[in-house]
């Protein structure tokens, strides 16, 4: 079972090795092979889904229901100062493995290796502009 040629499906099936953190009927959690910080974990649905855009509500419900449980286990284990959740969708958004995954990156203070590195453009967005954008998005909620 699993999606052909998907490395995360192979990890779920045990065809590829991983450092498993947690598993149940719906999700598989394992350490990212490239640890940004100690305990950097990926939580994935057992149902293959490419990215957030193609994820059925039922799959996301089961996935996100379990995120706090895994996050708290990392917190208990290593007492980080905080934690970032990260989810990349599409190659242009730095997704490199096309099986939905949520990064859990515990934070240990400045210089721990994680940097979001984004630029804000607050001046371009007046309150009216924000209302307009929000309405445009809202019109497309299905
Ligand atoms: P993305 O860039 O798609 O958000 O994240 C994919 C992540 O999967 C990367 O951080 C990368 O280190 C991790 N990764 C890629 N291949 C493997 C693998 O075979 N095993 C594990 N444990 N992690 C992997
Ligand atoms: Zn897969």
General description of the model:
By secondary structure, the chain is α+β, with helices and mostly antiparallel strands. The chain has one domain: 2-Layer Sandwich (HIT family, subunit A), CATH 3.30.428. 29% of the residues lie in helices and 18% in strands. It is built from three helices and five strands; from the N terminus they run αβββαββα. The protein has helices at 7-13, 57-78, 127-138; strands at residues 20-23, 27-31, 41-45, 82-86, 102-107. A five-stranded antiparallel sheet has the order 1-2-3-5-4, covered by helices on one side. The protein is globular and about 50 Å long.
What would a concise description of this structure say?
This protein is an alpha+beta fold and 142 residues long.
List the helices and strands and how they pair.
Layout: H1 7-13, E1 20-23, E2 27-31, E3 41-45, H2 57-78, E4 82-86, E5 102-107, H3 127-138
Antiparallel strand pairs: 1-2, 2-3, 3-5, 4-5
The structure holds guanosine-5'-monophosphate (5GP) and zinc ion.
Zinc ion is lined by residues 2-3, 6, 8-9, 48, 99.
